[in-house]
Design a protein that fits this description.
The complex is a heterotetramer of chains A (50), B (355), C (281) and D (315). By secondary structure, chain B is an alpha/beta fold. Chain B is built from eleven helices and eleven strands. Chain C folds into two domains: 94 residues, Elongation Factor Tu (Ef-tu), domain 3; 134 residues, Rossmann fold, CATH 3.40.50. Classes of the chains: A mainly alpha (50), B alpha/beta (355), C alpha/beta (281), D alpha/beta (315).
């Protein structure tokens, strides 16, 4: 589609694995932040459409 | 009726000059097909085409058109109120429209410009537009304009009619709008005596090249319920996949939908092309659908064009014979065949044999 | 050029739950801008598009009568996107009304005649408008006998119950209210389906009698033969149709039955007209 | 008349006379060059309408959905795979069908032929290996292999995978076909390039839904684009909405698409939306060793869990 690879993450975390959740969430956040703001699949504000 | 002579140089320079006063729209080749697009500065319309892939109806009637905007921001005084979108339409000229497509607008106008209500979106665009027609010297094998109330040099709906010649064009000025455009383009050179006769000769020759026809003379008189219950609809509609290709490519199809789209707190009410081929077109909130099968929907399309319209307006069929639906239908449902079956049913009370 | 798609801004003044299943609510609106009420001048039998920014529009029959001033009223069944949202709105909210749209019951033709109104379920809205209109002191003398046959599934599903009771008490209108079934021992009106009650209670047919019939398809299907049996001619059986609509002004192309648009040439048709056209409703 | 046509008519007449089927679904001669129309035949004396040539590209499995009759269906390789998929997905029962298999040598790409001709094509004829197109003042003959639909030129299942009757001898399957060169080219693009590439690819889309409706897989009673509660996708020409339609539709076909090419063939504006479905087809093949519609016994890739399913993408 043209979405940068780093924006999509999959992980399997059991409800008991709280530390894994923290680690993964932190990693994902950092990875996405490093890519900067998303520009794809963003629709312009409607004011511009009309 | 003034006849003008436009040589190649006058043509190019004239369009450049007219571009100062008009937004020019013309046929442009995109990949394999021609489409009607705004011409860039200095860009000439490309007349090396039989007809554009899709009709130029989008020039007057965009596929998606904002009607109103609104805000759902509760702090705003005008929340939930609809503000009309008035499209800024500069004087526009469609250069090189085929006579069939121009005539189509005349038929569509019957729907959008009625004695008691007018659709301002359609009408404003139509009134701002000048139609510079291009006579059709080489009609397609699937064109049937001459028996669909039109023709390769048909003048109805045009403001100026061009005929291509070896040196450039001859032009027939048909309306005040056409006169104004010719003035803006600086096309003033009168054509010599006999040009109009030559144009008629060209038209006759082009008409002679039409090889495909429809019969329509009995459509008006046959009772609508007889046609509605005719036995051939199952066979006619079988192949249909209920896509919107025929309706979207048709210059005379006008049906539309109205939808609200909101992003955040800002929204717009849109007018969008719709199609009688889609089940959703007529689906009731209750789940009931009066045209719930493809047989219903295919029958609706043909009856609308070839019967309801004929009865309602007495202006012939709602078709100009451009042949696009014939060429583009993915499963080869052919309006010419169906029209002739309907017309034939009026006489014989039975469907023609399947060819 | 007046934009026929532009609704008049209105405020919801009151919301009334009509039926025990809470699926029908009556909304009373007043116009925000002075002069719009006059511009929205309507006849009984017409409809309007209720317009909610961000949701869309729905065609709804006008339930108030032209003789009732200062407000317009609509009773709405909760079915789809717009009607569900409308049901969540409350007094004070602002929205739009576009209309009046379509034709109306043939009041000129019916002048001096007897009128039988046959309604079922929630299709009673424009019939309420018609009854209030005819009962108005200025109009009552212009019509002959008025009969109303109105049925719902249960007593709790009848619309406008207080008004029905008030009309029952009057002597210038013959009310025949019925329910499909009820366990309510206090129920003092008819029990039975509308076609059966019509057969028993409808006045005899004649040159001077019109029937207006409005209800679910199944009711219409079984009532028409009854009227036929009673001798009502097709051009005196008046029906109001519903179809999916968008524009309401005969342009968007979806609500047609044959060459007639339900939104513009209808919604009111005589049975005679309907018999001449494909029945795509 | 091709010999396949003659055999088809003979089979259809036999099936209809014996009462084995109530209708035969096939093609009849179209009204314009290079177009045949899907049709049904109910009586033995009507089988003369049936034809077979290189212009039968529409997938006839599309016409089986939820039908109740006993049907004889004319099926080339891809149609037969979609018949299998239809049976697996309970859109038709095997017992209702007599599959009249047609070994296929590929369908002609009418656009490709039109592009190679100097004017409008008015007549087309064919032999086993060549197609001749004629118009005013020209006549061009093409090797069939040069003017096949793209999907047909890459096809590795030309013979029907199930059949009860066979209209002709089985053909040799194409060997050593590189099916995914175009997908790889897209995969190799940077995300920016790819985004732009699809933007250009989909720009002409008019959302007529011919691709969806020509597809035998797209039989949902209400497609997600038509849903209003909730409304997933805007209905206009917004490029994001158009893109959402195309790639979500492709996902709905994952592990089901046979690359029959009906979508691309049906498109009035010439969009190659097969690039989307082929990417998923390639993934299914590489990751799950799955090809759709080859067997009535195997469960589709998305329909079964195997412990060794690839899951490297999960961290």
């Amino acid at each position: 589609m043209g979405i940068e690879p780093g924006r999509l993450h999959f992980s399997w975390i059991s409800s008991a694995e709280s530390t894994k959740f923290v680690t993964v969430a932190t990693q994902v956040t950092e990875a996405v932040r490093a890519l900067g703001p998303n520009t794809r699949f963003i629709q312009p504000p409607l004011a511009e459409v009309a | 009726m003034r006849m003008l002579l436009i040589d190649r140089r006058a043509w190019e320079e004239g369009l450049k000059r007219a571009a100062g006063d008009y937004r020019l729209i013309g046929p442009v080749k995109e990949k394999e097909f021609h489409s009607f697009r705004p011409l860039a500065a200095g860009q000439l319309p490309d007349f090396a085409f039989q007809n554009s892939r899709l009709s130029p109806k989008h020039v007057i009637y965009p596929q998606t058109e904002p009607m109103f905007t609104y805000t759902l921001e509760e702090t705003r005084e005008d929340r939930h109120l609809l503000r009309e979108v008035v499209r800024d339409i500069p004087p526009t000229a469609v250069v090189g429209i085929r006579p069939c497509d121009a005539k189509a607008f005349v038929l569509v106008r019957l729907n959008f410009d009625t004695p008691d209500v007018q659709d301002p979106y359609w009408l404003r665009a139509y009134e701002a537009t000048t139609f510079i027609g291009l006579g059709c010297n080489a009609p397609c094998g699937s064109c049937f304009c001459t028996t669909a109330g039109c023709g390769p040099f048909h003048e109805e709906g045009l403001d100026l009619l061009l005929a291509e010649t070896a040196e450039g064009f001859t032009a027939k000025v048909l309306t005040a709008k056409g006169e104004a455009f010719a003035r803006a383009a600086g096309w003033t050179k009168p054509a010599p005596e006999g040009t109009e006769a030559a144009l008629q000769e060209l038209a006759r020759a082009a008409e002679g090249r039409i090889t495909s026809f429809v019969q329509t003379e009995h459509l008006k008189s046959i009772p609508v319920n007889d046609l509605y219950h005719a036995p051939f609809w199952d066979e006619v509609s079988f192949a249909c996949i209920n896509c919107g290709t025929c309706t979207y490519s048709c210059p005379t199809c006008w049906c539309f939908d109205i939808q609200d789209e909101t992003r955040g707190k800002a929204g717009v009410r849109l007018k969008l092309w719709d199609s009688c081929m889609y089940p959703l077109f007529t689906l009731h909130g209750s789940g009931h659908n009066p045209r719930g099968t493809k047989l219903h929907r295919v029958r609706q399309r043909f009856l609308h064009k070839l019967k309801y319209f004929v009865e309602k307006y007495d202006r012939g069929i709602q078709c100009v014979g451009c042949g696009r639906c014939v060429r583009l239908c993915p499963v080869n449902i052919d309006i010419r065949r169906v029209c002739n079956m309907m017309n034939g049913y009026a006489v014989s009370g039975e469907a023609c044999a399947i060819p | 050029m007046r934009n026929p798609y532009q609704p008049y801004p209105v405020r919801i003044d009151a919301v009334t739950v009509e039926t025990e299943d809470r699926n029908l609510k009556t909304f009373r609106f007043s116009f925000l801008n002075p002069g719009d009420e006059e511009r929205f001048s309507y006849r009984a039998g017409q409809f309007a598009e209720l317009s909610i920014a961000g949701k869309g529009e729905i065609p709804i029959g006008i339930a108030s009568s032209p003789t009732e001033k200062g407000f317009v009223m609509f009773t709405v069944n909760k079915v789809g996107l717009v009607s569900s949202h409308l049901h969540s709105m409350k007094a004070g909210d602002v929205m739009g009304i576009r209309g009046p749209l379509g034709n109306w019951y043939p009041w000129e033709r019916m002048e001096g005649k007897n009128v039988v109104i046959i309604g079922g379920g929630f299709a009673f809205t424009t019939l309420r408008s018609s009854i209030v209109y005819m009962l108005d002191p200025a109009n009552r003398g212009r019509f002959g006998e008025i009969h109303v046959i109105y049925g719902a599934r249960t007593p709790g599903m009848l619309l406008y119950r207080e008004e029905l009771a008030a009309w029952e008490r009057r002597d210038d209108i013959h009310m025949h209210i019925t329910v499909d079934a009820t366990q309510d021992p206090a129920w003092k009106y008819n029990v039975g389906f509308v076609p059966a009650i019509t057969e028993k209670k409808a006045p005899p047919a004649g040159e001077d009698t019109f029937a207006i019939i409005c209800g679910p398809p199944i009711m219409i299907k079984f009532t028409l033969p009854v009227l036929e049996k009673l001798g009502y001619p097709n051009d005196r059986i008046i029906m109001s149709l519903e179809n999916r609509m968008k524009c309401g002004i005969g342009m968007c192309g979806r609500c047609n039955i044959g060459k007639e648009f339900v939104c513009k040439d209808g919604p009111v048709f005589t049975l005679e007209q309907l018999n001449r056209t494909p029945r795509e409703y | 008349m091709t010999s396949t046509t003659a055999i088809l008519r003979e089979i259809a007449a036999r099936l209809l006379s014996s009462g084995a089927v109530e209708m035969v679904i096939g093609f009849r001669q179209g009204t314009i060059p290079m177009m045949n129309e899907p049709c049904f035949v109910r009586k033995p004396d009507e089988v003369g309408h049936l034809v077979w040539d290189s212009h039968c590209g529409i997938n006839l499995a599309n016409y089986l959905t939820d039908r109740k009759e006993k049907i004889g269906i004319v099926a080339k390789g891809c149609d037969s795979r979609n018949v299998v998929t239809h049976i697996l997905e309970n859109k038709i029962r095997r017992e209702q069908l007599v599959v009249i298999g047609v070994p296929c040598r590929g369908m002609a790409d009418k656009r490709k032929i039109a592009m190679k001709c100097p004017g409008e094509i008015l007549r087309v004829s064919e032999t086993a290996t060549a197609i001749t197109a004629e118009g005013e003042g020209f006549s061009r003959t093409f090797e069939k292999a040069d003017v096949l639909q793209h999907n047909c030129s890459l096809c590795i299942h030309r013979n029907p995978v199930i059949y009860d009757e066979l209209a002709g001898d089985l053909v040799e399957e194409q060997q050593g076909v590189d099916r995914y060169a175009d997908v790889r080219a897209v995969e190799e693009m940077t995300p920016e390039r790819r985004w732009k590439y699809f933007e250009d690819l989909l720009a002409p889309c008019i959302r007529c839904y011919a691709c969806r409706n020509a597809c035998p897989l797209c039989y949902c009673p209400t497609c997600f684009v038509d849903e209003s509660r909730p409304q997933w996708v805007g209905k206009g020409q917004d490029p994001i909405d158009v893109r959402t339609f195309h790639f979500l539709r492709a996902y709905h076909c994952a592990g089901r698409c046979t690359d029959c090419g009906a979508c691309e063939r049906a498109c009035p504006v010439g969009i190659n939306m097969r690039l989307f479905t082929k990417k998923l087809e390639k993934d299914c093949r590489e990751l799950f060793d799955w090809e759709a519609g080859l067997s009535l016994e195997a469960r589709p890739a998305l329909d079964q869990y195997r412990p060794n399913d690839p899951n490297d993408f999960i961290r």
